Amino acid sequence: MVTQFLFATGIENSNPTIRNGTVRVDELAKCGHYTHWKTDFDLVQELGIDFLRYGPPIFSTFLGDGRYDWEFCDQTFGDLLRRDIIPIVDLCHFGLPDWLGNFQNPDFPHLFAGYAKAFAQRYPWVQLYTPINEMYICATFSALYGWWNEQLATDRAFVTALKHIVKANVLAMQAILDVRPDAIFIQSESSEYFHAENPAAIKPAELMNARRFLSLDLNYGRRVDSEMYEYLMDNGMTREEYSFFFGQSMKQYCIMGNDYYKTNEHRVSADGTTVASGEVFGYHVITTQYHDRYRLPVMHTETNLWQGPNGNEAVNWLWKEWANVLRVRNDGVPIVGFTWYSLTDQVDWDTALREPNGNVNPLGLYDLNRTIRPVGQAYKQLIADWRQVLPAHSICLQVPIVRPGESDQQWARQKQNDARSARKGV
């Protein structure tokens, strides 16, 4: 049973399509994971990390309704089980299989739930999940900015993508719980804020600051405010679709994951256009806003910064984010984990994956030669220093996190039986 703070990293597995669906951006391939996956798992252990945000490439695993190719997944997850690394399984990271099309497809939610259930049945020792990564960002970049997948740029397309993505996430949680009743879901969601540049920009900034909550409002069954209700109804959501998100009783299984980067804060002009503002409020202030809204345990599920010319830029950002985590915790927010994302450098995120330029982004704990960066050394030391100081103290963890190697033990099976009985009583 795991009771310590959840120090984590992740292996980047984004896979959206661009250029009208003709080009697949597969970060697992770009970053060399298909070739170096055993080495990558070695590096996770070298850092002293127990928790890994990781998932199979959905586009090559989910072949059709009820059809799957588990070959790569069996190799990698079998090795994680052998190593006793605890995965936080990311089942959908910005892309869909070609046969499913894109997030405008109304069949996506039910089909994805079937995929999630099949995964849980094949790997019953997995307990922690992020069914769909960054639901708000996925819908925004695909259907409001026109960058990925459907490459649409309208409010109606955004609402359509969002309602399908969040419904798919909810149905996947239910499907996984049918198999693993003590599953815990860590929603990795971007935490945003929009600053008005001048008085004329206050109204569009307020609209954006309301819209940033839509994915989690729907996911957790929190009724949206009147302006957002009108926005959803005006852009194609029906009252029946809206009502689906209430009464699902899913919140009790969740940890709210907050992702924060320097690019998460925006300056809004009077015409509604935005530019990156850089860090103004920071993780502490914005995460407190999200916690006040949802009253859930929190995990800092993503952050990073490029290693710049001085070589210490990422190290200083790590220190700043960790200081924010401690401040949030000391203010009474039940924060249970922290993540530097990702394990290795990434490729082409300088253009948000819109252009396949092959640009290496130096923001990993290791470079793509698998040589540790200064921030990797610093994170390894941070974990060693703080591991025993910050025990998880969240009510969400009354159902304990079971290590993969313990999943067959009698006490672990009993915990699942207790969770199954409790779920039937909900």
Can you describe this structure?
- By secondary structure, the chain is of the alpha/beta class.
- The protein has a single domain, classed as TIM Barrel (Alpha-Beta Barrel), CATH 3.20.20.80.
- Helix content is 41%, strand content 16%.
- It has helices at 27-30, 33-46, 58-61, 71-83, 108-122, 135-143, 155-179, 202-211, 214-219, 226-234, 239-244, 282-294, 313-330, 374-386, 410-424; strands at 6-10, 17-18, 23-24, 51-54, 62-64, 67-68, 86-92, 128-132, 184-190, 193-196, 254-259, 265-268, 274-276, 298-302, 335-341, 346-347, 360-361.
- The protein has an eight-stranded parallel beta barrel with strand order 1-4-7-8-9-11-14-15, surrounded by four helices. A three-stranded mixed sheet has the order 10-12-13. Strands 2-3 form a two-stranded antiparallel ribbon.
- A hairpin with a 4-residue loop joins β2 and β3.
- The longest helix has 25 residues, at 155-179.
- It is globular and about 55 Å long.
- The model is unreliable at 392-399 (pLDDT under 50).
Main attributes of the structure:
globular; three-stranded mixed β-sheet; 17 strands; eight-stranded parallel barrel; TIM Barrel; 426 residues; 16% strand; single chain; alpha/beta
